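User: Structure please.
Assistant: Input sequence and predicted structure:
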Amino acid sequence: MAGFRFQRLLLSCLAFSVVFRFSALAQNQQVTLTPETVLAGAPELIRITAPDAASVTGDWSGNKLTFFRRGKSGPWIALAGIDVGAETGPSTLHIVVQTPEGSIRKFTQTIEIHPAHYRTSTLTVAPRFTEPDPAQLKVILAERALKDKTFSESAPERLWHGSFRAPVHAVATASFGTRRTFNGTLASIHKGMDYRARTGTVVRASNDGVVVLARKLYFEGNIVVIDHGLGLYTMSMHLSRIDVHEGENVTTGERVGLSGATGRVTGPHLHWAVRWCDAYLDPAKMLKVNLSSLR
């Protein structure tokens, strides 16, 4: 009798072990990234299958992830990415699933960040953009604080709907990620995409959102920043004219200004950038992400 009880206990423990291991494996398989190969500077769609969840949050390389649900019973989704200048190699994705009853499941997944190869370019600009005097430097520092504040207050819900659209009808250059040398000094990584837009070309909102910055800045010239929610922003720089104001809601395709040559430029063009939290993502890749099914 004692032997029979022991066998039952052993089988029960083995069954529990199998269920636990299966649950752990299932949790690992719940995370799907699109595209599967993660490049520095590329946007990623992260999907979590958690039918019993009331909310899903997480963290990736120090940036907070907030997921939204597709439908009432679909997967949980976040639009995220790794900065173009980030270190490559293994990174850790942390996921927290909370059920309606208040229980919490936590798990992690290692994600390999692969390098994206970009070229180097040399530009010549006015000396005040590479060697600002004390008064100009004071302005630059004040504007840096303003931008930090702007990018720290994204809407807590998703504002964008459907795929993102190009902001202008003009030829785009493959300039994202380029290591730029200004007046002989390596100054920055180009964290946007340039369009060969003549002065006066209409610039439109690439998706729904709210204008959180619309003014002239030292380096950016006339700039419009749109918050699309959950840490996602798009920026249109060097405008000749701004046609929206801060706090205004805009929809996809709505006119926000005209292209120009204000700020640190070598000629008329539109600099368009995409930012998620503190990561700058390749706008060309963002335009190729199919988000239409997530409307």
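Residues 2-114 form a domain with the Immunoglobulin-like fold (CATH 2.60.40.10).
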